[in-house]
Amino acid sequence: MIYLDNAATTFPKPECVYAATDDAQRNLAINAGRGTYASARKAAAVIEETRSLLAKFVRADSADDVVFSPSSTIAMNQIIGGIDWSDVTNVYISPFEHNAVVRPLTLMSNRYGFAINFIPFDGETQQLDAEKMANMFAIKHPDVVFVNHVSNVTGLILPVAEIIREAKKYNVVSVVDASQSLGMIDINIKNIGADFLVFAGHKNLYAHFGVGGFIHGGNRSLDVFLAGGTGSDSLNSSMPASIPGKFEPASHNVIAIASLNASLKWLNDTGIENIYSHKKNITEYAVERLSSLNDVKLYTPAERDSHIAVISLTHSNYAPNELAEILDADFGIAVRSGYHCAPHVHGLIGTENTMGTLRISVGFFTTTDDIDKLFSALSEL
Questions:
Q1: CATH number for the domain whose boundaries are 15-269
Q2: Contact (CB, 8 A) for 115 and 62
C-alpha cells in the first residue's frame, strides 16, 4: 500500500513508537495514579515525563500546563464547554476550521446567542485579508478567536500569530487548533499568542490513537466541562482546583501516552526542522507533478511558503469518491475523499458541489517514488 492519508493519521509510525507501545501494553497497562505499587508508579512517571516533554516542545511555562485527553476533539469540547459565554457577543473563526471546532461552537452559539463571524480569506489565493480583518474587529469587537494552524483540506499554513496579535487588541480568548501542525512545524506557544493550544497525538506527533489534549498558554481560566474520578483528593466531590488534574477525569490511557513519549523523543532526535523540510520538499514535488495533469485541478495556496503536506484536487471525469476507490482498488494507493470534516472551506474554494475533494497528504515516510506512482496512476485515467 502507498499511504497518502497522513492528515487523517500518520502511518507508519517510527519503529521506536511500536516498541514503546508493545512494552507499555505488556508492562504498564495498569491504572496509573491509583496504586502505590511499583508498576503504577512507573506508569505515572511515564505520564509525567511525557507531559514535561510536550511542555518543552512548545516552550510552555510548566509541565502542569499540559492537559491530556482521549483526543483533540474532546480537548476542544473541554475548552469550548469551559469558556464563560455569558458576556460573549462575537466569536471569530477561520473558514478552515474542523468540525471539532465548528460543531461544539455552533452548539454553544445556539445556547447563548453569540455570533460566529468568519476571518476573511481570499478564495483563490487562500491569503488572509488583514486589512478587512482589522476593520471587522474594529466594528464587531472579538471576544473569542479560534484559528486552525494548518488546514486539513488545503494544507494552508494560517498566519495564526498575525491574527491573534490583532485580536488581542480586544482582550480576546485565543484558541489555536494545532492538530495538523504540532510535530511538523516548530511552535512556540508564547510567540503565537495562544491561550489554549490543542494537539492530536496520532497525527504529526506520530503517536497512536487515544491521546490528545491542550496546552495552557496564558492566564485564561476555564470552567470544568467533564468531571469524574482523578485518583486523588477522592473525598472531594468537586474536581481538583488546579490544572492538569482539573481537566483530567477518568483513567489515563497509559499505552497511548507511552507511544507519545516515544514519538516526542523521536521528534527531538530527528529534528523538527528536518521533518518540516522533508514534508515541504515532498509537497512541492507533488504539486509540480500533479499540476501538469490536464484533467486535474489543484486547490493549493498561492503562496508556496504557506503550504505544506496536504493537497486537495478534483478530476474532470471522476467524482472524488470514485477516484479514491479506483486508486485503492487498481493501484493500491490510499487517499481520502469528501469534505474532510471541514464544512466552510469548501464554500471558500468552490468545492461544495463537487462532493468535496480528493485529498493527498504526505508524511515523513512518504517518498518521491510514492508521488511518482500516484502521478502514473492518475495519468492512466
A1: 3.40.640.10
A2: no
